[in-house]
Design brief:
Keywords: Amino-acid biosynthesis, Cytoplasm, Dioxygenase, Iron, Metal-binding, Methionine biosynthesis, Nickel, Nucleus, Oxidoreductase. The protein contains 4 helices and 10 strands. It is an alpha+beta fold and about 190 residues long.
Length: about 190
């Protein structure tokens, strides 16, 4: 089950949940309306098989692994700050959480932030062109598998990026509400 909510308008610390009072939770169906897909790999003992099945089904032919913590990631503080800058990518951002936890913040059609908690077993797909950012939580540790179609493209394009082709396509497909998709909750 996804754990997502509208983010407090002025978060004091990016690593905290920053839930406003009252908290308004967001489900997978709402996330899917603007292109965000959430999956839960339920059999963590056999996650390789389930992850490979997902990769084949969706055409992700390249993967790597990254550990984000002070001991493993050079220039940790600078990287965490950079990941938290609002940006888009020209390709989907696909992350499977092996260990640890963190937050992806995404913008909905009303330009409001929604915070998505990701933990071990969660697989999140953010479509190309969606404004988003990432941060670790107070545990300062997450290990993820990153999936790509073809050669990885690492470039983040900070906001504003309204005239970029990926953003224009995203807005046309999702932000204007022209297409509603069914949510994915398991593989």
């Amino acid at each position: 089950m996804v754990s997502a909510w509208f983010l407090d308008r002025s978060p004091a610390d990016q690593k905290l949940p920053n839930k406003p009072s009252p908290t308004v939770h967001v489900g997978v169906n709402e996330l899917a309306k603007f292109g965000v897909d959430y999956y839960k790999i339920t059999n963590t003992a056999n996650f390789d098989e389930e992850l490979n099945e997902f990769r084949q089904k969706h055409g992700y032919d390249y993967s790597d692994e990254i550990t984000i913590n002070k001991e493993k990631l050079p220039n940790y503080d600078d990287k965490v700050k950079m990941f938290y800058e609002e940006h888009i990518h020209t390709d989907d951002e696909v992350r499977y959480v092996v260990e640890g936890s963190g937050y992806f913040d995404v913008r909905n059609a009303n330009d409001e932030w929604i915070r998505i908690l990701v933990e071990s077993g969660d697989l999140l797909v953010l479509p190309a062109g969606i404004y988003h950012r990432f941060t670790v939580d107070t545990n300062d540790y997450i290990k993820v598998v990153r999936l790509f179609k073809g050669v990885p493209v690492w470039t983040a394009h900070n906001r504003p990026a309204e005239e970029m082709d990926a953003r224009l396509k995203y807005v046309q497909k999702y932000a204007e509400g022209q297409q509603t998709r069914s949510a994915q909750v398991s593989l």
